[in-house]
Design brief:
By secondary structure, this protein is mainly alpha-helical. The chain has one domain. The radius of gyration is 20 Å and the shape is globular. It is built from 15 helices and 3 strands. Strands 1-3-2 form a 3-stranded mixed β-sheet. Helix 3 packs across helix 10 and helix 6 crosses helix 11. Bound molecules: zinc ion.
Length: about 290
Amino acid sequence: MRATSFGPTALLLMACLLWGCSGVSLDLPSSVQPAAQIAAKTGAKAIHASRPISDSEEYYVGRAVGARILAKYPLYQDQEVTRYVNKVGLTVARKSSRPNPYRGYHFAVLDTPEPNAFACPGGTILITRGLLKNCATEDELAAVLAHEVAHIANKDGIKSISQARWTEVATTLGTETAKQYGGSAGQMVTLFEGSIDDVFKTIVVNGYSRSAEESADREAVSILRKAGYNPGALAAVLTKMSGKEGAGGIYRTHPPTSERLAKVQSLAPASSASSEKEAVRTARFQQLKI
Ligand SMILES: [Zn+2]
């Protein structure tokens, strides 16, 4: 796995490259035609059983979601910080239950004081400067990133695409309709736009279910242990976040921090004792200009 950061140009290009495998760009039409209408016009029958979304489809949906988030928040243009976040992120990702998604993991920092982090399906993780500043140590940053990696490993984002929506997309993709519209970018994109909407709304507006969050916290603690980080770092960072619910951002999309903290403390309590290695990691974290 290679630590890769991407600049704003690359991220904007995502939209154009998005459906490259099917020869379709992501220039979203201003007025879109629901997939059901396309299917109806061409006689496609949306009655077949749906197939699961593939890893490559998940990746492309995730990139489109990432591009939408980047339209909302600018990237933090600091290579040193971006490189560092990628190194820590890849270290924890390697110890997750899904170390090698289709195109690997990529981490980037968003330039906003709002505390937030987004796990785009397929492996793109965006963390804000506001949330980075909430971390006092490398281990706490690793804890935050491990939680986001767990969402990707558990496919929580892609699971938010409604079953009805995906059934319709998958069915239409497998019919003459897809071939017929293969040359028309706008129409093909229409098929996927609803899926991208579903994921965007979940990760940016509504949040995942409580059980998905609990599971991501549990996996984060396990990842921290396996990666050699202090497993109590998640409880430590949640302790600091507790009571700040009014700040919006990640607090809006996650269960109450006190509720998460109680469960995480029972898995790995925050510890004030710091090992020598942890002190070295903390020193390098504190040199960053966030
Ligand atoms: Zn979460």
